[in-house]
Amino acid sequence: MQRPVFLDGSKTTEDDVEFSKDYEFKSKGAAEPFEMPESKSGPETLDEMISQAQIPPAHRLFMRAYKQPAGKNNYCGPASLASVMDYYGIDFPDLSKPGGRPLNDDFVYATARWSGTPDVLGGVLGTSGDHMRDTFKNKLNGFNAGWYTSVAEDYLMSQVKSEIANGRPCIILMDYGNYWMDWQVCTGYDPHGIFTNVTFVPQYEFTHMCNSEFISRAKNNIPGYTGSLIKIWKT
Length: 235
Hints:
The chain is α+β, with helices and mostly antiparallel strands and 235 residues long. 27% of the residues lie in helices and 17% in strands. It has one domain (64-234): Cysteine proteinases (Cathepsin B, Chain A, Alpha-Beta Complex), CATH 3.90.70.10. It is globular and about 45 Å long. The chain starts with 31 loop residues before the first strand and ends with a strand.
């Protein structure tokens, strides 16, 4: 895998990144509100959207799933970032790689130190959407990202499938109740549902979630975060 190409040209070590000491729950940058394009003759159902966009009925990305280290239940952000970075061949050259890949915990911890995640309330409440976006948008050369919220249900599904069909994993925030949220990388789909990396389930690389469950979990009650979708693309 290639060395990380950081915008400042520096080599990252453990001491390069300090975790946030700002304990005010305040977003550094708002998400882009996602508005479905108006079209009087446009598709009205998910099947029509997929047909018109020429999205194949099923597609899977070949990628590794990085998980939250044991006891780090607020590390879904860096775990998801690590999975996407690994997919694009980006790693930290100082890490040992038995079997040709970094160990799960080593890579996730290194990603957390470099990206400054988790960051909400000093990391206690996990990782903010703007920090996830800005890691790719501002810290890596050759990448851009967007964070979108309030995405309509059918359009959210079509957007996720379109990204995957075009070889781009995307990240979505899923709700498991009682304000227990999990950033997950979407890695594939079929007619029945979406494959995601549930970061707190270490025994499975990817989990298949039926369409109705996927939509239900994406519709969380966190202000400014419902229907959160993070797209990452090469520039």
